[in-house]
Amino acid sequence: MKEMEPWWKRSVVYQIYPRSFMDSNGDGVGDLQGIISKMDYLKKLGIGIIWLSPVYDSPNDDNGYDIRDYQTIMQEFGTMQDFEQLIEEAKQRDIRIVMDLVVNHTSDEHAWFVESRSSKDSNYRDYYIWRDGKGAQPPNNWGSIFSGPAWEKDELTDSYYLHLFSKKQPDLNWEHGPLRNNIFDMMTFWLEKGIGGFRMDVINFISKDEKLPDGEIHHEQGYGDGSTYFMNGPKIHTYLREMNEKVLSRYDVLTVGEMPGASTEDARIYTNPENQEVNMIFTFEHMNLDSGPNEKWDVRPLELVALKRNLEKWQHALHEVGWNSLYWNNHDQPRVVSRFGEDGAFREVSAKMLAICLHMLQGTPYIYQGEELGMTNVKFDSLSEYRDIETLNMYKEKRQQGIAHETIMSSIYAKGRDNARTPMQWTSNGGFTTGTPWIRMNTNTSFINAEQAIADPSSIFYTYQRLIQLRKIHAIITHGSFQLLLPDHPDLFVYKRQTAEEEWLIVNNFSEKTNQLVWKECNLPQTKGNIMIANYDSPKLEGDMVEVRPYESFVIAFERGK
Ligand code: NOJ
User: Fold this and answer.
1) 165 lines ligand 1 (CB under 6 A)
2) From the CB of 62, is ligand 1 less than 6 Å away?
3) I need a surface site. Which of 16, 29, 537, 539 has the fewest CB within 10 A?
4) Which pLDDT band, with edges at 50, 70 and 90, does 3 fall under?
5) Are residues 201 and 275 in the same domain?
6) What CATH number is associated with residue 128?
7) Domain residues for 506?
8) Is residue 432 part of a domain?
């Protein structure tokens, strides 16, 4: 008998970055009651799942990705009661809450770390990765992802601890059984509250090569790149299977692993249901295409051909093996309309095109707050208006290396994470808080805001709403095969989805030029097609040709075999 289809295959996830979503008490920081107050908005959009970025107690060195206590809610966000109410309110609207599981590291203020550093004999010593230095040097040459070395010397015991992120985010030692059991108990605690699953922060970093060898040095002034020794490390599959067996298999939940550096080969293992690891992963490959090979700040123009080839590879690799996640945005990425679209005259139309292009692929789509409004990147004049630790550390390091202020700022404008973290735009004058927001609002709230979007039936919001509905109704979106057409076309991203009964053609123009599409090249069934969704009135058919206008996008469904 065919197994029942998992519920998360036909649902769409909406990511909330709580700090920037909605503030209910005027302190300038978003909170749980704020989210509760916007539940009907999310229901209207039609999403079935919320991924909540961390809401746990944290000193906020990295906005909650540095957890001090896994089982307490961050005071600024509310209380456990608020959290329980949120689950309940969501449930009433058929929405499940997926929590962020940040277990590659904790905060250095977590009780385990406080204990661990206190003495070499502490019972918690092995919860973290401690090593002696090499003379006056750290144990190896690895650099931190947030700049500087990946090791911090702790004078208390005269040894170093590993931190792949900030020095306030020490890495946990997954080799240690008691630590793993504590994590599994903590996961159970949240699952018992009725949550709908976990998004697992850099989960493919948790198994390090125990020898911790030096990494390759890519540029003169740089540190060693340790990624070969901690990404998809030696015991990663063992740990994920143990987590599955001890915790996840007992619940019907969604799991998505954030996995930088995972190839399609890795993903086939991680997401094949037979292996019982995770349901899907976040790949970074398509997000790295507009950067140079060694770092994201080295900004390059996107080549559409490379993007198409990459998405094609993922579509094929996981078809009928595992499952894809589909995303353009999250709290770490710049706003896609400013990045792969056009955020001036073509903002609305290009935002809709990007939505259609992504949501017609096979996988589970993720919408990041504000994406459904076409929110854009920001350019703050002064560095002091930026909040993100990655950005601030990088700026300092590059200035020390003699790189010009203007050069660094242009990278920040293109790639900085604060682009995604400005407050959600609810009304024409903001509507996020009655106080002073923790980070500046974008200046374009007068024409980009939820109130206007809802009042306008042709807004980007309704394109997303329609896409979510289409996925619920048409099995071809979930199950159909994928075929890329015109792979080398520099502006058009054209693909087909197919089942035995149907064939859908998806046409997207990634350029402000009008492009001609010759029908014959699409090898379509000889039937009349139905337009399922479009971002212009209706496609401009001219005999054997379609004129695909700037950033135009449409989907035509054909029946097969008739
Ligand atoms: C990935 C998260 O998405 C990012 O925001 C965070 O800074 C790092 N992991 C470290 O937790």
Assistant:
1) yes
2) yes
3) 537
4) low
5) yes
6) 3.90.400.10
7) 477-559
8) yes
467, 485, 502 - which closes a domain: 467
Q: Is 388 in the pocket of ligand 1 (CB under 6 A)?
A: no
| Number of neighbouring beta carbons within 10 Å of residue 301 | 7
Each residue's pLDDT tens digit, 482-533: 999 999 999 999 999 999 999 999 999 999 999 999 989 999 887 789 999 9
327 and 377, same structural domain? yes
Phi and psi angles of residue 271, each rounded to the nearest 5 degrees, phi first: -105, 0
Q: What is the CATH number of the domain that holds 359?
A: 3.20.20.80
Catalytic residue set: 201, 258
Q: Supply the residue whose CA is at minimum distance from atom 5 of ligand 1.
A: 332
Distance 39 CA to ligand 1 centre (A): 26
- The answer to whether residue 246 is domain-embedded is yes
Examine the pLDDT at 561 and tell me if it is beyond 90: no
- Decide: 256 in ligand 1 pocket, CB within 6 A: no
Task: Find out whether 132 and 196 touch, Cβ atoms under 8 Å.
Answer: no
Domain identity same for 144 and 187: no
Protein residue with least CA distance to atom 11, ligand 1: 65
Would you say the CB of residue 201 lies under 6 angstroms from ligand 1? yes
The CA 422 to ligand 1 mean position distance, Å, reads 17
Pair 238, 259 in one domain: yes
Side-chain half-sphere exposure of 474, counting CA atoms within 13 A: 27
Q: Are residues 207 and 287 in the same domain?
A: yes
b vs e for 361-377, b when ≥16 Cβ sit within 10 Å of the residue's Cβ? bbbbbbbbbbbbbbbbb
Residue with tokens 């939820």: 450
* 3-class state of residue 126 by DSSP: helix
Looking at ligand 1, which atom is closest to the CA of residue 330? 3
Minimum-distance ligand 1 atom for the alpha carbon of 65: 11
In angstroms, rounded to a whole number, what is the distance separating the alpha carbons of residues 48 and 45? 9
Atom index in ligand 1 nearest the CA of residue 164 equals: 10
Task: Give 62 Cα–ligand 1 centroid separation in angstroms.
Answer: 8
Q: Confidence band (pLDDT; 50, 70, 90) for 562?
A: low
Same domain? For 373 and 518 the reply is no
Contact indicator for 441, 425 with CB cutoff of 8 Å: yes
